[in-house]
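Journal club side-thread
Mid-discussion, someone asked how the predicted structure for our own chain would compare to the paper's figures. Pasting it here so we can look after the session.
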Amino acid sequence: MRKVAVVGAGKIGSTIASLLSGSGGYDVLLIDQSPAALAEAEVGAKTVAMAIDDPVILARALTGAFAVISAAPYHLTTVVAEAAKGAGAHYLDLTEDVAASRVVRDLAKDASTAFIPQCGLAPGFITIAAWDLAQHFDELHDVRLRVGALPRYPSNALNYNLTWSTDGVINEYCEPCEAIVGGRLREVPALEECEEFSLDGVTYEAFNTSGGLGTLCQTLEGKVRNLNYRTIRYPGHAAIMKALLNDLGLRHRRPLLKDILENAVPATLQDVVIVFVTVSGLKDGRLMQETYVNKVYAQPVRGKMMSAIQITTAGAVCAVLDLLAQGKLPQAGFIRQEDIALADVLGNRFGRFYADDDATFQPALRAAAE
């Protein structure tokens, strides 16, 4: 059994540790600075309570690990990555923070192990799915990625419940967003360019948020006309968040905003994750479009109810870890999500949460079966 350390015992980190330890293929060590968080996790894995803000000290705890998965808050991403490098372990994370991912990429340049950031839902699986669709075209025009983790039964003015990291939500609402517009790489403001669309009779809105594209902008620069990522919410959410962040100035007082949200907006396990990718371009001289839409709902996993965002985020990074352990990914250097085959993810025991019977993905599903 390979030793894997998971840093961060929050909703997602504890789910990752539970999936890996329950699989029987990994010896899991869950690390967090909070003994209470570790006790609450109940993941069937070894636990260590320690500070995780010093890469040198953390590296000692990671000695002998095959891989390290960071599920810590985004501002600790680079600390965990440095510690993993110091321990000689492979590194994976879930961060949507663009600046942190750039540091991880630099750390990977001379590393003897693999560095695979942004392995969650978005960035992560959404990037893998979009890249797979893009390969079906001779010439790309527009690539649109939309993802939302939503309550099934919204009951407040925000039409939202907390389903994952509050720090992560605030960060993606505040930081600039990468996009390709008219063939050029640009930064566009978060919470802007709000659009409405309907799916299965329900109306949603989608707006710019930071980090969801991963490295896709750099990969497709000069190869696509327009590329963007937007977060899906129920109508009205963006307007309220803009008032809080801009009119009340809470983008400059993030700890206060976090405290307000966590004490006013309840969490829920009754959620749904919507994955919506649309690619258009030329095929054999004809203008064509392909769309992948999938909904993943909260469901019991090994007898325990898990939210859709827990399942999709943890399932994605666990699938990538499996592929790395199986030798299906490079064993050193920086690895993009685009380097990961969709068929491999869908055919994986953890990636099965994303399995869909849409005809668009049938070739990938058949390849996975083979």
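Post-session note: Confidence is low (pLDDT under 50) at residues 362-370.
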